[in-house]
Structures are given as C-alpha cells and as structure tokens.
Amino acid sequence: MAETTQHADTERAGEPGTGQRKSPPRPRGQLAKREGRAAYFFLAPWFVGIGLITIGPILGSLYLSFTDYSLLSSPEWIGLDNFQRMLEDERLHNSLRVTFTYVFVSVPLQLALALALAFFLDKGVRGLSLYRSVYYLPSLLGSSVAIAILWRQIFGTEGLVNQLLALVGIQGQGWVSHPDHALSTLVVLNVWTFGSPMVIFLAGLRQIPTMYYEAADVDGANGFTKFWRITIPLLTPIIFFNLVLQIIGAFQTFTQAFIVSGGSGGPADSTLFYTLYIYQRGFGSFEMGYASALAWFLLVVIAGFTAVNFWAAKRWVHYGD
Amino acid sequence: MSNRYGNNLLRGRTAVAAVFVATLALSACGGDDASTGTEAGTDEVTLRFSWWGNDERARITQEALDAFEAEYPHISVDTEPLDFDGYFDRLATSVAAGNAPDVITLGGAYPREYGDRGVLLDLSTVAEQLPTDQIDEAALSNGFFSDVQYSIPTGVNTYAMVVNPEVFDAAGVPLPDDTSWTWDDFIDIAQEISENTPDDTYGAVDPTSADVMDLYSRQHTGAGLYTEDGEVAIAAETARDWWTMTKQMSESGATPSASLTAELAGQAAPEQTLMGRGLAGMQFDWSNQLTALRGASGADLQMLRAPGESHGVAPGMWLQASQSYAIYAESDHPEEAALLIDFLVNNAEAAAFIKADRGIPANGEVLEAITPELDEDTAAQADFIAAVSDEVNPDLIIGPTGSTETRLIVERLNDEVLFDRISPEEAGERLVREVTSAIE
C-alpha cells in the first residue's frame, strides 16, 4: 500500500516543475520580425564558427575517409578500402577492447561516487560551498596535461603510491608501466573527476521537494527506502543526463592516455585508446584517410550508444509528467 | 520539458546572414595573409626555422642565428623549437596545411619520408647559395635519394655504447676491451655490475631499439633492417635471438624489470635516462648525446664500440647524419633559406656556437677550425668518431617511406616480450610482418 501512495506522489511530483515552465508568448508582427533579424545577426558569428570549424571539417573528414591521404600529398579515392581494412586491423580491435573496458568500468564508478557524495553533501554539511568547490576542482583539471604528468609520477615505480605502500611494507610496482594495471590508473583518474556530475546531482537533489520525505517519515519509511523509492526515481532524469554525457566523454578520452603512455598507448598497447589510435594512424604514420575512417566509425559507435541510451531511458527515466 | 523554440531556428534568413558573415570573415582572413607577407616595399625577409632539442641547444642555436642576422641584416629568423616527441606531429600538420617552415630540421628516415612525397626542395636549385663540396660525401648521402639532394647533414653521429666508469669501479668490474668484446661479454658484465651495486643500479639499460636491432642484424647476417630497394631485410630468427637474449637479461636482473623499462621508454630526454641519472653501467645511445649524458650524470662517461663488432659477418656500426636541414618546397624564400643552411653547416662562426651539438661537423674545414675550441666532452665524441670511422659499415641504407614507424613497433613488441605476453619467436615474426605492412 505504501508503494502505491509513493507512486502517486511521484506522479504528482513532476507537476509543479512542469507547470512553472510556461512557454513565454511567441512574439508576432513587425516588431517580432525585426527582433528575429537582430537575433540572427547576433547569432551569425556562432553560425560561422560552426560552419567553418565544425561542419566543414566534419564533411572534409567524411570525404577523406574514402581516400588514401598521406597528409603530405593529395588524397586519392580508394572507395571502401579503409573500412575493409578496419575488419582485419588487430590493433584497432585491441583499442576497441581497451576503450570499451574503460567506458564500462569508469563511468558507473564515477557516477556512483558522484551520487554518493552529492547525497551526503545534500544532507546539509557545514561549509557546503567549500566542499562543492573542492570536489569540483578535479573535473576542471582532470583532462589537463599537467594532471596526466602528475598521474604518471604518482603511479610510477618511484611514485607516491609505491612510497605509501612501502610504509606498510609492500613492495609496489610501476603501475602506469605494467600492462595489467596501466588502464586501471586511467580509470582511477576518470573516477577522480567525479565533481562535475556531482554538482549536477546536487542541483537535482535540491529540486526534490521535502514534503515527500516528510510524508515518507509519517509512513515510517527508513533511510534506505526513502533513497530508493523517492530520491532515485525523482533523480532519474539527472542520472540519465550524466550517464549520456559521461559515456560520450569517456569514449573521447585522449589527453590522459596520450600523456601517461607518452603517446604510444603502451605498455604493450594496454592503454591504446581508440582516439589515441586514430592519432597514431593520422599523424604517426601519415594515414589520414584511414584515420578519418576510424573517426567516423567512432562517431557511429557513440551515436549508437546514445541512441540505445535514449531508447532504454523510456523504461527507467521518470520525467514526472 | 519540451521546448517550443527549437523548431523555428534554422530558417532562410539565418542562412543568408551566416553566408554574409562568413564572406566577411573569409575576406578578412585573406587580408591578413597579404599583410603578413614580405612585400612591404623593402627586401626584408623573415625565415621560419624549425628544430627540436633542449634548452641548451636553444641557447647556442640562438647565438648562431644572431651571428647570421648580423651577417645578413635583411634576413631575420623566427625559430620554432619543439620537443622531439611532438616535433614530427606538428611538422606533418603544418605541411598538410601548406604553411611549413622554410628551413626544416629532419633526421633518420624523415628526409626520405618527406622528400619522396614532394615536400622538400631539390637543393641543386640553390647550389649557388649552398655549396656542398666541403661536406663529407658519406654524410651527404644521408639526404640523397631518387637522384636528388634533399637535405644537408648537420653533422656526423654514430650509435654506440656509453659506459659509466664510476659504476664499473663501484662494482669492481674492469672496462672491457671494446675492440674484441662479444655479446656474451656484454651479458656477463651487465650481470656482474647489477649484482655488485645497490638495487637501483643496473649493469645495462634494456638495449632494445630499432637502431640496435639494425646493428645486431648486420653483424649476424650482413643486412640491417632494410634492403637497398626498400624491403624488410631483418630475418625473424635474428630478432628472435635478440629478444631471447634481452629477455634473459631482464629476468636475471642484468637489465631493469619489464615495468621499469616500459616506464623509461616514454622519456627521450637524456637527463631522465638511467645513464643520465648515474644508475646504469652501460646504455646504447647516439654519440652526440654524450655531452648531455655527462652533464646530467656528473660522471666521466666514455664511448665504446658495440659488442660483437669484430666477431660478426660484417660490422654493425655506421656513421649517420645526426640530423639534416632541408628547405620546404613551397618556401617563398628558397635562396635565403639556403643561405641560412649554408651559414649553419659551412661557416666556422656558426660552428663556434653549435660545435658538435648536432653531431661532429661534416664539413672538414669547419671541423678543423673548431677542433681547438672543442670542450672536453665534444672532443671525446670527435675522437671516438675518428677512431671508428675506418671500421664502420660503409653501407648506409636509409629506411624507406613508412619506416619511421619501426621505432614504435619495436618498442611495442619489446614490451610484449619483456612482460611475457608473447614469445621471442612470435615477436620476431611479428616484427617482420608489422614493419613490412608499415612500409608497403
């Protein structure tokens, strides 16, 4: 019985939110036209940017993906050969393995940590804004070159981690330089940048009206039930948003892998991320045509994942309307 | 949560506005280009010169360039120094974008990689500004292929064994006689040093690199990595033997663990190598690294011939242009660029600053002029090169197009072998297969 009550609450929970979001009246007439023109004018630099810097190169790379292009001489049309080659490219398959492992391990861990911390911070910690900033900081720094270099030092043979292990008598090894552990250090790096989904979760938690919790208290629900039956369902749109963004971001990981492995994807290709492999083919061995084909395949993979995500979202995300 | 605006955004007027602004922006770009050109009514010329290296090289190169600008007041030079790691990526990008530097520093197989693709100027067209008659023939051949001289050597270099006598002393091991030592001697010495020194000091750094495999293959079969006509020459068995040896050395502690070797592989700077930190007895390296390695380690490092030189079917060592200068084919100022290269390689004044930082000068007269001024470290390199120059293998084969990837292939397979993920035998086969596919 309690369940049905809560469901009903959940249903209603969305209403105030959507109700407030009234669309402003659409402007009409002469004035509107003039304003519209002005808007386009002010937007124009953005359109130029997206045309020249985004759409142009994207179409360019689509063309290049059907060519043999060495960067140094003109592209030559070779049809589907690049895509054919992808089927037999063992290093490519390895890089897909590495990237998928990374996405499937680091994104759930990162989101779980972000949600957990957001949940505790939301309980009313003194100096919340300080904590929020401190935890958010790694997100700003996480993909920077400096942090990647620092990571290399921390997880190196003589790094901080091993020094700490030595204190308790454990003889550590080079974490970034061992094929079995190198990827894990990058997963840790990604999890460490949990701050940006955390801040979004925090904002989401703040939106949940306290009356539901009060009602649940009256019904005698315990903390876990409240979390599971109220917090999570009402937070699903936020979880979904973070999930989509973080998956896309994880697929595109480049800087960390490039710096930590010195550009090689080593040791023994254990951190050969897909984007790093694209880079190696394009700039290392002058195969920009093949690299473009690889990039398009990545686009398809990410688009596919996002589509599946949106499809699955219908089953578990509650928008409350 | 639906948004009522979205639909109305992309309509005709937007497109018109976008095109209008795009046109403006494009014409603005065009205007920019013209104004940065050199046709301002004077003959002022600005050359762009790209090279890689450390701060010390930056300092002495700048001194040489100042002297050049003093001699040719109408030419000024913008340098574009970079780390070795990012250098060739950036060069490839700027060539693709059509704005490569006028004077380009290249090395190894890169002159061929670029020359064969039409990026470099045929230097015979600027022979007047850049005479090559004083430059060592063998060194010049490094930049000569497809019947065209594409680049000029900055100096001569050789790949050999750097040793740290202090580490040998501490371990109580005498320096070997490098005219007769074998690979077995190398293994034994490395083992002995590792055993008689603290845990963080090693008899030898893991010796595997594309250059050493080239050398080892020549000693054993007479052929290095590539054949004259651009095919793979190294046999899978030779590579297998090599990796069988180095894997044992790593397991026995004569060389560092797989993990430390992998960690060191990503760091090209001499200061960060085990030799540079005084933690290794032996390390293969290029002779022009001696000064940097000595400075970093603070020890009186020496150069020795590679092991096995006197026991193989042919000498494995060779002399090579350490780097070379080339001119971008699309340069607006090929003649001035040629003057700059001429100054750097044929002028004793420039050499007085650069000395042997880019290899021992290949111009005999220049070398003679600066010899008295050479510091101890550089003189040691010059002496070593003079001593081995009659013994080394005269057949220099520049790697074919695509061979610049070999370095990474060797590094990757080396990790696989040392971490016990594939056998030396499989590594040998994969080396041949992967290099073949890279140079196809």
From TrEMBL, chain A:
Localisation per UniProt entry: Cell membrane
Membrane topology: Multi-pass membrane protein
Signal peptide: none
Keyword annotations from UniProtKB, A to Z: Cell membrane, Membrane, Transmembrane, Transmembrane helix, Transport
Membrane-spanning ranges: 38-64, 100-121, 133-154, 182-205, 232-251, 291-312
GO cellular component terms, semicolon-separated: plasma membrane
GO terms, biological process: transmembrane transport
InterPro entries: ABC_transporter_permease (IPR051393), MetI-like (IPR000515), MetI-like_sf (IPR035906)
The ABC transmembrane type-1 domain, residue ranges: 96-309
Family membership noted in the UniProt record: Belongs to the binding-protein-dependent transport system permease family.
Record-given protein name: ABC transporter permease subunit
Source lineage: Bacteria, Bacillati, Actinomycetota, Actinomycetes, Jiangellales
From TrEMBL, chain B:
Source organism superkingdom: Bacteria
Signal peptide stretch: 1-30
InterPro entries (UniProt xref): Bact_solute-bd_prot1, SBP
Record's keyword terms, sorted: Signal
Keyword Glycosyltransferase: no
PANTHER family: ABC TRANSPORTER SUBSTRATE-BINDING PROTEIN YESO-RELATED, ARABINOSE-BINDING PROTEIN-RELATED
Name used for this protein in its record: Extracellular solute-binding protein
Native source organism of the sequence: Phytoactinopolyspora mesophila
